[in-house]
Amino acid sequence: MQLTIERSALLKALGHVQSVVERRNTIPILSNVLLSAGRDRLAFAATDLDMEMVDEAEAQVQVEGQITAPAHTLYEIVRKLPEGAEVSLLYSGDDPRLVVSAGRSRFNLPVLPAGDFPVMSTDSAGASYVMPKEDLARLIDKTRFAVSTEETRYYLNGLYLHTVSEAGVPLLRAVATDGHRLALAETPAPEGAAGGPGVIVPRKTIDQVRRLLDDAGGPVEVTVSAQKIRFSMGEASLTSKVIDGAFPDYLRVIPKGNDKQADIDNALFAKAVDRVATISAEKSRSVKLAFDNDRVKLTVRNMEAGQAEEEVEIGYSDEPFEIGFNARYLLDVAGQITGENAAFRFADPASPTLVLDPADPGVQYVLMPLRV
């Protein structure tokens, strides 16, 4: 294999695929990136056996061929080369190393046979649709903060992506929950999405897709089956296994009859929560909210650090009411509100609270209260 490639093209493609590779691997080949040169293109592939990222870039190929090389090492080398450099990659059977050279720099990297590299199979059955990258980015951004990080309930370690029909209108919906809070975002379903299987997309996959969306120039093609999901944008595509499990019936958690309503300036409220939470206990981070006649009083008591109080003017005309929340969860939701105000809907101090964004009716947030 012998080729020359421009540094920026090599860096971009390598940046995409090497992020899939785990830093520590018991299987050596999984630390490597598969390089395939042919027809004036250099293709890249990396995998952790649950997910596979592929990309490609233009190159001047003198000799076609395939080899695998250490992904992170190769990426760091290319990253530190000067901008505009022409990078030469050379591998011949005579020398069991990949020679990377640019200008006066020359590196020899260990290789492993391309034939040992695991390739993820694709599923033909399922649904395929194309959607604007902005719509997919919104679904991810509005919900992924609520994905569980506890491995015990593995079926909550991802984003539940599925289609629903509301008043005859098909919607593509993303839901995440960790048992303490829930985030839901939806958008009109793209053509071809309705009827596809609902899948739980792993947290790591969601993070990788979100990174790809920042570099994507156009729409995203999504192909989903009961076992796998693939996101394709431009030259890059990511194929991932989905979590094998049943996502809980989240509709039962979303409250319908919460009759107490508070309309709150989101930025003012978030800053007040952040200030009083400074002295909260790290474990619970609980803050008490006391609603009364167009104001809310925030209180935090910590046996060791003291007490904090602050009042914020709001729109509230129902009976006086107290409820407690995890301050971190309040701030996470506040960070997703796009408009000036957030609409809180309460039932009682022990029941889930619904938070809505008047500027974006396609999102809903549910917070479980704390005892304070």
From TrEMBL:
SMART domains: POL3Bc. Pfam families: DNA_pol3_beta (PF00712), DNA_pol3_beta_2 (PF02767), DNA_pol3_beta_3 (PF02768). GO terms for molecular function: 3'-5' exonuclease activity; DNA binding; DNA-directed DNA polymerase activity. InterPro entries: DNA_clamp_sf, DNA_polIII_beta, DNA_polIII_beta_C, DNA_polIII_beta_cen, DNA_polIII_beta_N. Residues 1-120 form the DNA polymerase III beta sliding clamp N-terminal domain. Residues 252-371 form the DNA polymerase III beta sliding clamp C-terminal domain. Its main location: cytoplasm. Transmembrane segments: none annotated. Keywords: Cytoplasm, DNA replication, DNA-binding, DNA-directed DNA polymerase, Nucleotidyltransferase, Transferase. GO terms for cellular component: cytoplasm; DNA polymerase III complex. It is found in: Cytoplasm. Confers DNA tethering and processivity to DNA polymerases and other proteins. Acts as a clamp, forming a ring around DNA (a reaction catalyzed by the clamp-loading complex) which diffuses in an ATP-independent manner freely and bidirectionally along dsDNA. Initially characterized for its ability to contact the catalytic subunit of DNA polymerase III (Pol III), a complex, multichain enzyme responsible for most of the replicative synthesis in bacteria; Pol III exhibits 3'-5' exonuclease proofreading activity. Forms a ring-shaped head-to-tail homodimer around DNA. Belongs to the beta sliding clamp family. This is Beta sliding clamp. It comes from Brevundimonas intermedia.
